[in-house]
């Protein structure tokens, strides 16, 4: 019976472990010649979900308009993030290019979800090698789902052991009772 009373506590702890996402927005300006600090702090193990929209121009001409995916041309060594799409949205956590499970690391594009391997500031940039002729921006939404803390996982483990222990005790009592009952008939 007491095991049943512990169950809601365990479920509440597990529910707290699935912390809600916190969301931020940030505009990445195409004319800024460096990675830009989004002000979003990332911890190792956090799930980071980035979506981006908007239009940027890599020269002063309307034909150079690009979205966050840029152009499907690998950037040269002089670009902020060489090897990924020219004029795309690119990202780092501190100095580590964002892991990209389906494309080159460092490439964000219009949507990316990753688990951060490091702790630090989330930095974003327009991937170019000459910024004076750029204009426009990408509008970025960043959602962070924190990794469940070690303390919380430990509390869940302790609660679970408590449930199992009390279940065993109560099943022993039932067993003893039925043996005693069986002896009397
Ligand atoms: Ca340019």
What do these coordinates show?
- The protein is an alpha+beta fold.
- The protein folds into 2 domains: 2-11 and 150-184; 19-145, Jelly Rolls (Sandwich).
- 28% of the residues lie in helices and 35% in strands.
- It contains 2 helices and 11 strands, in the order αβββββββββββα.
- The chain has helices at 2-17, 150-184; strands at residues 22-29, 36-42, 47-57, 65-66, 71-74, 85-86, 89-93, 96-97, 111-115, 120-126, 135-145.
- The strands form 3 sheets. Strands 1, 3, 4, 9 and 11 form a 5-stranded antiparallel sheet that branches. The protein has a 4-stranded antiparallel sheet with strand order 2-10-7-8, with no helix packed on it. A two-stranded antiparallel sheet has the order 5-6.
- A hairpin with a 7-residue loop joins β3 (47-57) and β4.
- α1 (2-17) runs antiparallel to α2.
- The protein is elongated and about 80 Å long.
- Residues 180-184 have low confidence and may be disordered.
- It binds calcium ion.
- Calcium ion binds at residues 58-59, 128, 130-131, 133-134.
């Amino acid at each position: 019976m007491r095991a049943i009373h512990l169950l809601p506590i365990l479920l509440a702890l597990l529910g707290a472990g699935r912390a809600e996402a916190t969301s931020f927005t940030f505009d990445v300006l195409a004319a800024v010649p460096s990675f830009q600090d989004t002000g979003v702090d990332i911890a190792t193990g956090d799930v980071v979900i980035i979506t981006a929209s908007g239009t940027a121009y890599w020269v002063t001409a309307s034909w150079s308009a690009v979205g966050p995916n840029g152009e499907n041309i690998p950037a040269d060594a002089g670009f902020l993030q060489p090897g990924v799409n020219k004029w795309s949205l690119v990202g780092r956590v501190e100095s580590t290019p964002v892991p990209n499970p389906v494309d080159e690391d460092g490439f964000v594009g219009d949507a990316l979800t990753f688990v951060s391997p490091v702790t630090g500031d989330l930095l974003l940039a327009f991937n170019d090698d000459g910024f004076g002729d750029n204009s426009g921006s990408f509008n970025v939404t960043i959602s962070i789902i924190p990794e469940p803390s070690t303390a919380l996982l430990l509390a869940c483990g302790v609660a679970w052991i408590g449930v199992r222990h009390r279940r065993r005790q109560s099943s022993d009592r039932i067993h003893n009772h039925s043996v005693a009952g069986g002896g009397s008939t």
